[in-house]
Amino acid sequence: xxxxxxxxxVDAQFASPYAMSVFVALQEKQRPFTLHTxxxxxGANKAEAYARLSLTARVPTLMHGELALSESSAITEYLxxxxxGLPLYPRDPVQKARARQIQAWLxxxxxxxxxxxxxxxxFYGVKKAPLSAAAVAxxxxxxxxADQLLPAHGGQLFDxxxxxxxxxxxxxxxxxxxxxxxxxxxxxxxxAQWQRPSVQAWLAQERPPL
Length: 210
Fold this sequence. Notes:
The structure is a single chain. By secondary structure, the chain is of the alpha+beta class. The chain has 10 helices and 4 strands; from the N terminus they run βαβαββαααααααα. Strand 1 (6-11), helix 1 (17-28) and strand 2 form a beta-alpha-beta unit.
């Protein structure tokens, strides 16, 4: 099955941070794949054909042979298990558990930041209103979390780069790219992750106008 082609379904706006995470993972593994777009605004993910393909009717969805897998962290863990090349997760069990914790937390918390600094900020450069009190509190939690986890040198979270670095940098950049207050050390880390060729390949995708 490892020789089966990969098909990655992402949103037509190339604005899903979760689709970006899987796209980056495939780029880092240097594995060819066919990219398909799904127009979420038009409800294409709810169409019968896509609903048959994706159990959750969401993006991203990865097709590999007969396997159709959705939910981004499940996909990146799968890719890391079956593909050689650069590891997406630390090999040390403790560090790997921490990387999974980071991904799970970023996907389940910090909703005020995600709402008030949505992906239009990241991928379209849109400016939003000042943060609400709830979003300021969420931002403080995020910055404290990142400061505690990021080593003093600030290069990456663990001994080597991991996909959790991209996910954390994306959340930090919701603030930093908007001009909200982010400590310089964390802003530098997020900007360095943003410059990875795999991330730049996602940023370079042609997006429809808002």
